[in-house]
Design brief:
Blueprint lengths: L1 H12 L3 E6 L4 H13 L10 E5 L2 H12 L9 E3 L5 H10 E6 L4 H15 L2 E4 L4 H18 L2 E3 L7 H12 L6 E12 L6 E2 H12 L1 H9 L20 E4 L4 E5 L3 H15 L11 H12 L5 E8 L6 H13 L3 H9 L1 H4 L4 E2 L5 H6 L1 E11 L14 E10 L1 H19 L8 E3 L1 H5 L4 H7 L3 E9 L3
Parallel strand pairs: 1-2, 1-4, 2-3, 4-5, 5-6, 6-15, 7-11, 8-12
Antiparallel strand pairs: 7-13, 9-10, 10-11, 13-14, 14-16
The chain binds NADP nicotinamide-adenine-dinucleotide phosphate (NAP).
NADP nicotinamide-adenine-dinucleotide phosphate binds next to helix 2, helix 5, helix 8 and helix 16.
């Protein structure tokens, strides 16, 4: 077993590229390239060799030019690979320590990339926000990935790192005997220009809603996961729209991937209360990891979209209604995909946001947690939460600035700390990166984690 691990470690260290960005010519991909270039051969950076991969060398070359401007493009290998050609994927996966996959919708294009990475023992990180893809990959590839020494981690973008790391940060504010029962995250997108997403994300959302029943089917066919012990009763379902007094925000329930990913992280933690052991970790790292996870306090978790006015939620409600009504039938899907701007009230465009629109957008995500000043109160019949803690994660535009930042920082942790991460398997980002220095790295790169307040709740 130890020899086996050693062989995999030495096979990884002999690979030509530290990182290959697949789908580098895409809208998000080119922003990921721009972020990666900041760290390529920078002092103390473990990123020494980088290649870009995609279907078209000329589009890759354009993306590299855009990403390096105003500097001339550095000499970086451009590799040709197509998801319909498994050999091309094996070729890139066998040359790389990590593939950063930006080719979506993942339900259409992701699986062959995961398969090639697992087979080649290469690590795979992506920016997927599609829960059905993530859970399908876990069901199909976890055991093989564990055996082959390939880490497969989806949702390393805005979906769902701010939620995962934000909840862990929030949980650490419940010190001593106090413990949260429920945490509601309120996401507010801000800009003095229009807030716009690219068509790739829109298409992924349309196909996700269209295939929602497949996820239900998949879950039915899988063994039940462990549920964390959370003090106090499960919170009531609550209304779809509500007013949050402390934040003075209207909140609309978001069926985002975040709460699903967080739930999977909490299940893995319940099954592994000390977190996941590193493949070749030091004693010191084992102690740090165990100490970190011993302070994590799970809670019921949900996400809401926040707006200063009820009217501000209206376009999102209408988009949700259109998605629900039209995505289930092929004519409806055709209409949705043909006219993204109309159905999303300008929220998504075929050509994506302008650079100015990207640069002027920001997000704030407040975590409002309610729980008990003493968790033993919850089992003594005093079942109403008596304490409220508010924390916040804040950063630049979500899709094309925050997503590349978090994806790159995850990759840098995986390069630098590979011995301290699990040998392989399909996991959520929180359980793999929670106990590493990812949060500190995000803080250093423009994504802040702040404690806001703690209050007593009246009985
Ligand atoms: N987690 C988050 O918060 C977050 C943020 C942003 C984006 N995303 C996700 O990222 C994905 C991409 O979004 P996007 O807006 O960047 O889309 P996009 O602009 O359409 O980019 C798609 C990329 O995939 C490539 N591609 C398509 N089919 C391929 C195939 N068969 N083989 C190889 N490459 C192929 C395209 O290459 P060509 O240049 O050759 O066409 C392009 O590089 C979506 O699923 C989106 O939801 C997630």
């Amino acid at each position: 077993m130890a020899d086996d691990n050693q062989n995999q470690i030495s096979s990884r260290s002999s690979r030509i590229y530290d990182v290959v960005i697949f789908g580098a010519s895409g809208f998000t991909g080119k922003y990921v390239v721009r972020e990666a270039l900041k760290f390529l051969n920078a002092p103390n950076s473990p990123l020494k060799t980088l290649a870009l991969a995609g279907r078209s060398p000329s589009r890759l070359s354009e993306a590299l030019k855009w990403a390096s401007a105003p500097n001339p493009p550095p000499k970086i290998p451009l590799l040709t690979a197509d998801t319909s050609d498994p050999n091309s994927l094996t070729r890139i996966a066998s040359q790389a320590k990590i593939i950063l996959d930006c080719v979506g919708p993942f339900r259409l294009y992701g699986e062959p990339v995961v398969a090639a990475c697992v087979e080649s023992g290469c690590d795979y990180l992506d920016i997927c926000g599609e829960p059905d893809f993530m859970e399908r990959m876990e069901a199909s590839y976890h055991d093989k990935a564990a055996e082959k020494g390939s880490l497969v981690i989806s949702a390393c973008g805005f979906d769902s790192i701010p939620a995962e790391m934000g909840l862990l940060f929030h949980s650490r504010q419940w010190t001593g005997p106090s413990a949260p029962n429920r945490v509601e995250a309120y996401l507010r997108l801000e800009s003095d220009k229009k807030i716009v997403g690219n068509f790739g994300t829109y298409e992924s959302a349309v196909l996700g809603v269209a295939n929602a029943d497949k996820l239900v089917e998949l879950r039915r066919s899988r063994p039940k996961r462990a549920r964390p012990a959370i003090p106090g009763p499960a919170p009531p379902k609550g209304s779809i729209i509500e007013h949050q007094k402390q934040l003075d925000l209207w909140g609309l329930k978001l069926p985002s991937a975040d709460s699903i990913v967080v739930r999977r992280t909490l299940s893995t933690l319940t099954e592994n209360p000390h977190g996941l052991p590193g493949v070749n970790e030091s004693d010191e790292n084992r102690k740090t990891r165990e100490a970190f996870w011993s302070t994590a306090k799970p809670a019921h978790f949900g996400v809401k979209l926040g707006s200063k006015s009820l009217l501000g939620l209206f376009p999102f409600i209408m988009f949700g209604v259109f998605l629900g009504l039209l995505s289930k039938v092929s004519l409806g899907r055709w209409l949705l995909l043909k006219y993204p701007s109309f159905f999303s009230a300008g929220g998504f465009r075929k050509e994506g946001p302008s650079e100015d629109e990207v640069a002027s957008a920001t997000f704030k995500m407040w975590f409002v947690g309610q729980g008990f000043s003493d968790s033993s109160l919850a089992s003594q019949g005093n079942k109403k939460p008596d304490t409220e803690v508010i924390t916040r994660v804040m950063g630049p535009e979500i899709g094309y600035l925050t997503t590349p930042i978090v994806l790159l920082q995850c990759a840098l942790v995986a390069l630098k700390e590979r011995d301290n991460l699990p040998k392989g398997g399909v996991f959520t980002p929180g359980i793999v990166f929670g106990a590493t220095d990812l949060e500190k790295r995000l803080q250093e790169n423009g994504i802040s984690f702040d404690f806001i307040s703690v209050n007593s709740l009246s009985a």
